[in-house]
Amino acid sequence: MAVITGGKVIPGAFRAYGAGAPSAGTSEVQTLTIGGTPTGGSFKLRHEGFVTAAIPWNATNATLIASIDAALEALPSIGTGGVATAAGTLTAGIGTVTLTFGGDRARQAGIGTIAVESNDLTGTNPTLGVAVTTAGVDATARG
Length: 143
Hints:
By secondary structure, this protein is mainly β. Helix content is 9%, strand content 45%. The chain is built from one helix and ten strands; from the N terminus they run E-E-E-E-E-E-H-E-E-E-E. It has one helix spanning 61-73; strands at residues 3-5, 8-10, 22-23, 29-47, 50-51, 55-56, 83-87, 95-101, 115-134, 141-142. A hairpin with a 2-residue loop joins strand 1 (3-5) and strand 2. The chain is elongated and about 50 Å long. The two termini are 17 Å apart.
């Protein structure tokens, strides 16, 4: 498409930019691991300087996953639709939860690693940890 600038037509000089799905690239996946034998309590997660509200532990996987997802998406650094939370090896609230970045955070490199801000879980030696399992790779284009 031609662009008119300074009274001159420059053929092929127009390049459209816009919102839309990124092409190529890889969305980052982080894994939250819940270990030990928690029986109750809560925990908080931190991402890029923002801290979630307390996330109540629950032995019902769907309830726990929904709570983690809602707490992370409430953070300004992630936002609504910014992460997909799913059971990895989660059984009765113990095991792994995958956190796949999406929305405005899809297919980006350099996403900060989620960290455990506080572990107020009760039970026998409850532990929490987060690791990057698939590093993000920047998309080649957006729009």
